[in-house]
Write a structure and sequence with these properties.
- Helix content is 34%, strand content 23%.
- It is α/β, with parallel strands linked by helices.
- The strands form 5 sheets. It has an 8-stranded antiparallel sheet, covered by helices on one side. The chain has a 6-stranded antiparallel sheet with strand order 5-6-7-8-12-13. It has a 5-stranded parallel sheet with strand order 18-17-19-20-21, with helices on both faces.
- Helix 7 (259-267) packs antiparallel against helix 14 (437-447), helix 8 (298-313) packs parallel to helix 12 and helix 14 (437-447) runs parallel beside helix 19 (563-584).
- The longest helix has 22 residues, at 563-584.
- The N and C termini lie close together (10 Å).
- The relative contact order is 0.09.
Length: 602
């Protein structure tokens, strides 16, 4: 939800911290701040607004070889200067940045106030430096004070702290991500790898209950009791340039145009000779599965719907559940249930909680994620990576495409393994046509008329998106993208649902984007034609050779391909429509209001 970074080593820390915060703004941009320790006090600089505002207020970078930084997505208290991180104790000797939610902060705050501590913000975080200060006075040792502090906290946290006069960064995590970056001359801590990818690609993904002490030339990882633990390091295969905008105006547009590459990476080595093969899932991996549950949130949920539709078509009992509602909506779960957690970041709090709930009931779990070493990858029994590379834009684009393709391939392996499962009758054709998908996306990007459509329909009252079968999830995703970055009212529906209520809202100011794939599109056609008879403009999105193309006011065409992949090409057109509409409306496309990239608190 928020982004934190810490750095310690030789040379000044401020520039590194500010660069890291700019790379983390997809996690929050309500306010920003840094604290630097240079042997003559802890210097805190923070303000509401984006990192650029913080930089403009710094006449000169504060000196110091170590520091912490934070970019905020507000949960407790509005985005004000006072609520910006870092927070300090009353005297200002201890500075802390925090990602997560402290559930018992009211109780802690009242107790600390009774002991003379003074507070300046509305945040839950501010209790943390005060607790460290209190326990330092009690124990005379900062590391012990940090241990006692995190043991006192209830909720979720990734914390980094510095203390006046000490050449050390203290950090801990529970329920929120924290990654250690290793370089020859400096160490880093951050919520996510892009924060320090300009400096190092060697990382350690910290685990639940880890506490870290970084010093200029060493680091130590222990559990909360102080027992040293070993954590292996990984090399991140992301190119630092992948995390930048390059020649594009926005990260979102760059990531839309990156889809041919990201999809090629997703597909590589997984579909050949008419068979599906994942690198860590051998044949027969799912032979004991008799039911599958997909759990996900947001865009990942729409990708899960895509996979769920294909798996049901293979004759396997399948549910697609919103992770936030899992506990109250799931059906029976046992050791023969496979729970597939779909999460781009691998840190989505609701999805992780659903996996834990399913595991407690005996289910087997599989994470489908973009981040190696993420909490989901480590928590689940198995993990499959979508290989999309870093995605910075808050509105997910290339990760949706890579998730949907990964899940489509996964459904074929599950269907082959499960007794009674029925892989696609045209499986060989399906997999052969998949090889053309990156090239077909390139064709869409080169020829799309999405900008003209966005301009023509810019002043509409509402925007509806409809689709049937696989097109339904694409319609929902198209509507989500549109509302996320344009702030205009948009809704997605199953095609047959339109006449059961939503048709009352249809006017000539309600353009309808009709997604079709060339298979089972009759409901989409009949409902689009009925809406058109009420005055609604119809934009058909799909292959040219379908009869709906002749019934539409405008066509956003995609290359002819297998119906399973046509919806993903239609999705690229809808991504472009959303982008161009938002740009014409002068919206902050990469940083839509009230939203953050990774929702790490429930």
């Amino acid at each position: 939800m928020c982004g934190i970074i810490a750095r310690i080593g030789h040379g000044d820390a401020a520039e590194t911290l500010l660069t890291g915060l700019e790379n983390l703004e997809y996690r929050g941009y309500d306010s920003a701040g840094i604290a630097v320790q240079n042997g003559s006090g802890v210097k805190v600089h923070k303000c509401s607004g984006e990192v650029s505002e913080l930089k403009s207020q710094l006449e000169a970078h504060p000196n110091g070889n170590m520091g912490i930084g934070h970019t905020r997505w507000s949960t407790h208290g509005p985005p004000t200067d006072e609520n910006a991180h870092p927070h300090t104790d009353t005297v200002g000797d201890v500075a802390v940045v925090h990602n997560g939610v402290i559930d018992n902060y009211d109780e802690l705050k009242a107790d600390l106030r009774s002991k003379g501590h003074e507070f300046e913000s509305d945040t839950d975080t501010e209790v943390i430096p005060h607790l460290i200060d209190e326990y330092r006075a009690e124990t005379g040792d900062t590391e012990t004070a940090v241990r006692k502090t995190v043991s006192t906290l209830e909720g979720s946290y990734a914390i980094a702290a510095i203390v006046d006069g000490e050449e050390a960064v203290y950090a801990a995590r529970k329920g929120s991500p924290l990654v250690l970056g290793l370089d020859d001359d400096e160490w880093f801590l951050a919520s996510d790898v892009p924060a320090f990818l300009d400096y190092t690609d060697e990382v350690i993904y910290l685990e639940e209950g880890d506490l870290v002490v970084l010093e200029p030339d060493s680091y130590q990882i222990t559990d909360l009791d102080g027992t040293p633990v070993e954590r292996s390091s990984d090399t991140v295969d992301w190119d630092p340039e992948d995390a930048g905008k390059g020649e594009f105006d926005h990260y979102m547009l760059k990531e839309i145009y990156n889809q041919p590459t990201s999809l090629s990476n997703t597909i590589e080595g997984r579909a050949s000779d008419g068979e599906v093969s994942f690198e860590n899932l051998t044949e027969g991996t799912f032979s004991d599965v008799d039911a599958v549950q997909f759990v996900a949130c947001g865009t990942s949920y729409h990708a899960a719907m895509y996979g769920g539709q294909l798996l049901r078509s293979a004759g396997i009992r399948t549910e697609v559940l919103r992770a936030s509602e899992y506990e109250s909506t799931t059906g029976p779960v046992d050791e023969n249930t496979l729970v597939v957690a779909v999460t781009q970041s691998g840190e989505t709090a609701d999805t992780l909680e659903a996996v834990r709930e399913a595991t407690s009931r005996g289910a087997r779990s599989l994470a489908v994620t973009n981040v190696v070493g993420s909490t989901a990858a480590r928590t689940a029994d198995d993990a499959v990576y979508i290989r999309a590379g870093p995605e910075v834009g808050v509105a997910a684009t290339k990760t949706y495409s890579s998730q949907a393709v990964t899940l489509a391939l996964l459904t074929q392996q599950i269907a082959s393994d499960v007794p009674g499962g029925e892989p696609a009758a045209d499986k060989a054709t399906l997999l052969e046509s998949l090889q053309d998908l990156p090239e077909h996306v390139e064709e869409v990007l080169e020829s799309s008329q999405a900008e003209a459509v966005a301009r023509e329909r810019l002043d509409s009252q509402s925007y509806f998106f409809i689709g049937h079968g696989l097109g339904h999830s694409v319609a929902l995703e198209g509507a989500l993208k549109f509302k996320e970055i344009t702030y205009e009212h948009a809704e997605g529906f199953a095609s047959g649902q339109l006449k059961h209520g939503p048709l009352a809202l249809v006017t000539d100011e309600t353009p309808i984007f009709a997604v079709y794939s060339g298979r089972g599109d009759e409901k989409t056609k009949t409902n689009a034609i009925e809406a058109r008879s009420r005055g609604a403009p119809i934009i058909a999105v799909g292959p040219d050779d379908h009869s709906l193309a002749d019934a539409a006011d405008t066509n956003l065409s995609v290359p002819d391909t297998h119906p399973v992949w046509a919806g993903l090409l239609a999705n690229v057109q809808l991504q472009l429509v959303s982008y161009h509409a938002a740009k014409l409306l002068e919206r902050p496309i990469d940083k839509p209001r009230n939203l953050a990239k990774s929702v790490t608190v429930e």
